Records
---
Amino acid sequence: MPSRLLFFLLAFMLFPIKSYAERTTLYSVNTGSFLFHIAPFDTDSNQYFDNQYLSIERKFSKDSDYSLFAGTFLNSQANRCLLLGLRKDWYRVNDKLVIKGVYSYAGEFFFDAFEDCGDGGFYNTVKEKTGVGFAPYLYHAAQYNFTDYFALEAGFILPVIFVMSMQWSF
């Protein structure tokens, strides 16, 4: 199962690439996520550093405010989910600070690793009504770029889940 996920993520990285120079400005990996459920507060939720978040992101072009990403994480019920989404940089405060939005699908997928995503919580409620366990993620954050290669971000997933993570660009 993990080898399929690794293959999927690596295949995503190999989108049409024109040159090595262009590629170095288009990709990033997001890791090390911290999250905390503010409301509704639930001590039984999978939170803090336990969500095993990893995603790969690719900008549309060097100067684009948009990017696509794919990744995986453990949801609030500790079930493995797929994450597919779009990022939009809404406002650049300066060269270091960006206000961004991420709009994504978090849920089940046809690989076995993601089949349990809809087995609990909101995902299960949606699965009972639609047949697919998923949740739309609306995430807004401030990203601070320490260097051209490393950034930290902090924001909220609606309704009120506080999130922080690291971004490695190359």
Note: Confidence is low (pLDDT under 50) at residues 14-23.
---
Amino acid sequence: MPSLSVNSKRGLVIVLVAAAAIASAAITWKVGADHDAGVAATEDRLPTRPQDLAVRPELQWVLNTERLAGNSVDRPLNFPSGMKSAGITTGAVGAGDQVIVAAVGHPLYGRYDTEDGRGIVVDSATLVGVDRQTGKPLWRRGIGHVEQCSDSYRRGTIACWDIDRVMFIDVATGHVRSETTTDFLMTYADVIGGVAYVTGRRTGIDRRSVVMTAGTVDDPDSAFRREYDVTGHDSYVAETLPASDTFTIVESIYGPVQYRTTAYDLDSGRKRFVFDGDVRAAGEGLFHADDLAHQRLSLLDRNGVPIARLGSTAWMVYPPPTSAPFAPAVLDGGVYDPESGAFLWRDPVLNSGGVSAFVGTTMIVSSPDDQTIVGFDSRSGRRQWTTPWRDAYWMTGGLTDGRYFVFADYVGMHSSDATTGQILWTIRLPTGIDSRGVTVEDAGGDILRTTAKAVSLWR
């Protein structure tokens, strides 16, 4: 998947212009709705302009929130995930090799989002296309009230949806490719490998079911529409994984089991296995399984067969910025082969530290307890370097070119040499900027920094 986002403490979501890893041999993958779609959707990627991340970049442009909105009333939204309210963060997403897209909303002052108690509710959203070279808004498209948008770019299209409405939007032009009213409650939509997927659920007096459709962005259910009966009171398609021909449905059920996961073949719709617990993709066809009833965690193969027993407090690391020939799965403080599930190595720093990037042959880990950044050989686990870093607990955003890694923290944004751990340059945040709402991401070879007050591009 062309996403270079870091999972830990991420203040906002940015998936940028042609956001593939810059090195030609890069492997980019994400656990979630399209975990390994990077393998299947290589054709979605656009050429990027190589940039030497060892060289301190120069500011190209800054776009403040008023210029973004085109007025002094609308507030920036944490696009694409936070479309219901305007809070302390701003988000942007892009597609095509020239456009960055953000969103603003019309605030209803006095009404606050009950989910976090901070964001001001908006009654409608507007997408804004921004020229990557100049920072000038190119187009604005009102899309009404929406719950969320997809967190990735696929062939220039982004999906946005409300409770019973889904739209597919060309983010290079703002043109609405299709808008459909559904007969089910929406839960997710995306375009993966050129296929538009829409998922939701239906609840009746005597029947509960999960619905999944597939097709083109112009006709989202033209390939198939499938409906699966469920018993859980809160059921949904959890992951869609075209590269491994898999999708999963998770049901919330009463009792000690709490969750039941069913894996299906994506092409045929055939049931593959059922697991009493929560199952999530953890590698190229592998799954992390949490059996809450027995407090047991396991690594499963694609058919649901246990490969390895994990600790009782295992947690899964979501793959971060990746430009590497080998990106292992990291679970329960251990490192596993992403295809076979074979155990490779373990290090105590992984019990509390988070994987920040895979760069070349190096796995970069931030350790909040030790206040350090550590570089491991991804295959052997050999510690190659350790860099003291006070803000290791707050490393967000990120991009890599296969040798250097750029990230953000409370101070600003920094570049690190993945072979030595040396910090090559630092650009501090402007005075008065809330660092919780800051991230840096790849923008087709440029660096895009987003704060609560502005979006800026660096080259």
Note: The domain at 14-458 is CATH 2.130.10 (Methylamine Dehydrogenase; Chain H).
